[in-house]
Amino acid sequence: MDKQTLKALLLRRDEGFWDALREITRSATEFDELFFLSMLRKRALEAGMVPPEPLEPSRIALLGGYSLYPLNELLLHLLAVENISAEIHKGDYDNYVSEMSEADGGLAEFAPRVICLLPSPHRCRHTGPLNDPEEIVRTEAEQVAAHLLDLCRVAHDQFGSEIILGNFPLPARQDPGPFRSRSLATDWNFRKWVNLQLGLRAPAFVHPCDIEFLSARRGGIHSEDSRGWFESKQPGSPGLLVDIAREIAHQVQGLRVPPKKVLALDLDNTLWGGVIGDDGLEGIEIGDTSPRGEAFKAFQRHILTLKQRGVILAACSKNDHARAIEPFEKHPEMLLRLDDFVSFQANWEPKSDNLRRIAAELNLGLDSFVFADDNPAEIEIVRQFAPEVTTLLLGPDPADYPGQLQDGRWFDIRSLTAEDSQRTEQYRAEAARRSHQADGADMGSYLESLQMEATVSSFTAIDVPRLSQLINKSNQFNLTTRRRTEAEVESLIGNPEAVTLAVRLSDRFGEHGLISIVIGRQHGDTLDIDTWLMSCRVLKREVEQVVLNELARQAADRGCQTLRGTYLPTPKNEMVREFYPTMGFQPDASSGDAGVFVLPLNSFVPKPTQIHILSTQS
Amino acid sequence: MTQTEIIARLQSIFDDVFLDPPTLHPALTAKEVDEWDSLLHISLLLAVEKEFAIRFRVGEVEATSNIGEFADLIEVRSTEK
Known about the structure:
heterodimer; A: 618 residues; Rossmann fold; five-stranded parallel sheet; B: Non-ribosomal Peptide Synthetase Peptidyl Carrier Protein, Chain A; 53% helix
């Protein structure tokens, strides 16, 4: 979604505008982007469009040693897209001391729920020589902090407001050289000391807005803007204004909405590299033997840290349960173990259903969940069918997973109690007491929304390496697990008795590539299915139905009466034990083998599917 | 670039930035346009600096009194590199 698409939604008066506006606003980092979005929101309101959810009012006083315009406009927009209608009282430039201490002035009349105070660093410096005794400078710095905190206390006492207090950005230039670090009297160290005091001494009603951090994250020289200061007393560069406004908005929201409680995690390519069902315990990437393995291990370490802070962990994976728990029980490099999770859902049901089940088990609302997965289609199904859940699409690089999770700010801590670190135990007990059936999601409309397209073709010479690779790698959805060399695959091309299908799938998130293979052999009026396999990534997408339809069509064209399939059990293909019966095949009484099934073609009706067939060749 | 060319490029920036974009001409002043407040002014300057790949010096935009002078300033800053 880009800005022009958003503008188009607005011009069409499309109700999707509001969700899209929120989405883009959440990721905007630059002033002009945010300004443009704020303007579109105003245009939408002027055009009579109404946001879908009612706005909750909030009264915010913005005070400080700066001009607070246009910061207030950015804040207004950021809050509006999160359904908060803020009334913002803008203080006069550098008049905050009297504004906050007056018991009967404008602030008392405004009655702010939140006061946001941004003092400017111009009064936060040591005025004496650099070689003043440290004791004197320290006292001076501590007085600067104490004065600000006192002012907050006075305002809190008389107006009952929560206070968001900005600290001081550090200077962007290295002045006066190496000596800067040696004396507390330099601006650099003085401000650091004041900032430390502001944080360490802040009472519970003071919520620090860490501008030192925000400007360091953006970069000092990209955060300072001396032209903006001289021209209109701006707190910093336009970019820094965005960062400050976003931080204030986050904190204002945090005063209304508690942090998330549950982190639900996918497994394959989320907690380790690779697919446990296909790659096996030896094949997955986790641990210090490879850079990727290290990255996944670091992500697990971060997740453990969250757990120690009281975040509840749950697993939600499309997997065979027995295979999914193997790494937790047997892999020596795994940091996470099964008992770190209060709920462990590894099955083939839609993840939205599984998340509902977990929520019911824990007796928690879905709105306290964050769900992280590397697969955009899984994220999409959760967004559609469990929209209360906050989703995080991980990737593409596992090295960035911890940062992505941290940037969400979903598990912010304001204070920490002993109880928090024991939360996992409490919820595990809760889960044991309850057992619930989750609601079924409407799979049909989900699949339809994926806009899937399949290409079914016979084997071609150019595909031989890929065909052979999938034939030799696929374990779980593989009816016979017959392996073939490239030469053997090649020999099937042009063989008049062989029916070969190579299936590719794409959806609106992109290409899945070659995902299913069938090899059939004609014996008289029977087509024997020698091989039928599929990548588990596209399980429950109705690819099987498409393949069966095509197989039946080709068999009938050849004059066959019957399809005959075989299931050869292995330790890894339990999931397709019932595949043929599910697809309408009958046990083949004449074969005397319980794993052989037949489907008479004269009564076969093609299976309905949401997949659009782009082309078929035979 | 002539003043007319610059004003034409400015027009497309204004079209993006304003809810109700004014039609630009050399004599137009900020005061004549309701929407032209300081939030918009900052956005406008950022957009202009980006579009023309220039940086204004402190105070000089404020010193221009209409669109024509503003366009001339852009011309000066564009050619000095």
